[in-house]
Amino acid sequence: MTPIPYNNNPGACAQGAEMTFAAYPRRTLTDDEIRRYREDGVVMIRGAIEPNWMALIESGIEQARTNTSLVGRFMSRKVEGYQMDIFLWKRIDALRDLIYYGPFARWAQQLMRSSEVRFFYDQMFIKEPGTDAPTPWHQDLSFWPIRGEQICSFWIPCDPVTRANSGLLYVKGSHLWPQRFKAISPDYVAAIIDEAMDDIPDINADPGRYELLDWEMEPGDILMFHPLTLHGSYGNASRTQRRRALALRWTGDDVVYAPSAKRMPIHFEHDSTAGGPLRGAAFPRILPTIEPAERAARLRPERQALLRLLGSSAYNAWAAARLGLKRDATRALRQTWKP
Ligand SMILES: O=C(O)CCC(=O)C(=O)O
């Protein structure tokens, strides 16, 4: 299929709109790539992303890096040199265009075998040179207020990555394990740690026991992975190279909204109700067609509701104090990350 040209001018679609639907990718995924995603829980596709889309990603990441949101500052406050932020597309036009008009939704549709594809959220992960902060082993789904099988994430580096400068590592096939592990974030956010869930085994302390997958990657390469595949990364040992990456999360037909105090709160407007499908401006439908009302909402950048943000911080402080009382619980959360 012919790729649709994009004029590479961030914001052009929002202002005039020469595109009204998601572009077709340079190439579709092969049966073998889809099989690897299903069996291993992750697949790396080399050279998948065309330079025009990479330029948009880099522009979006640089805007987010240099103009951090309130929630981004909160997420990054504890780990020196490790900068994170979420829902970037709500305030950065280049990323809104990427999500609506980039080729990503079509790959997600193929992987998830779903007729509908909604965008769940985006996330930035930046590790400055010499940042000794790992991303602990975790399963993404433990963090999220959703349920379902048709969910996938893409991880896109903007800089060359190796294991030593914080390329992602995966435990092969771990998405098929029966356990649901506690949500361990780089700053150990207590509010989302559900004590009823399993403790994550100390993967790096027992290397012979697990088959790890990782790749040296260049800008233009993409990782596609299942929300239950255990993954993490070392700190960035490079003295010169910043490591910037964007994650895009997608949902399909069977996904329902499942909010809980122990899941990531959503601070943007949407119309989903507990147990029902995702809908509304926070989780826009991209395929099979764009939902006009959600698309109209996307033209109005939205700030996170401050009151809800303050409420989440207070709840988190309370949860941290509670978890601190249970010393055994926190000990079990610590992981070995020595290169
Ligand atoms: O970039 C990283 O180190 C973490 C990425 C990650 O955990 C994710 O995209 O789910």
Describe the structure in your own words.
This protein has 339 residues and is α+β, with helices and mostly antiparallel strands. The protein has one domain (31-326): Sandwich (Jelly Rolls). It is built from nine helices and 13 strands. The chain has helices at residues 12-15, 31-40, 51-66, 70-76, 93-101, 104-112, 292-298, 306-325, 327-333, and strands at 42-45, 82-86, 117-127, 135-138, 146-147, 151-157, 169-171, 212-214, 222-225, 231-233, 243-251, 256-257, 285-287. The strands form three sheets. Strands 1, 2, 3, 6, 9, 11 and 13 form a seven-stranded antiparallel sheet that branches. A four-stranded antiparallel sheet has the order 4-10-7-8, with no helix packed on it. The protein has a two-stranded antiparallel ribbon with strand order 5-12. Helix 3 runs antiparallel to helix 5. The protein is globular, with a radius of gyration of 19 Å. The structure holds 2-oxoglutaric acid (AKG). It comes from Pseudomonas tohonis. This is Phytanoyl-CoA dioxygenase. GO terms for molecular function: 2-oxoglutarate-dependent dioxygenase activity; iron ion binding.
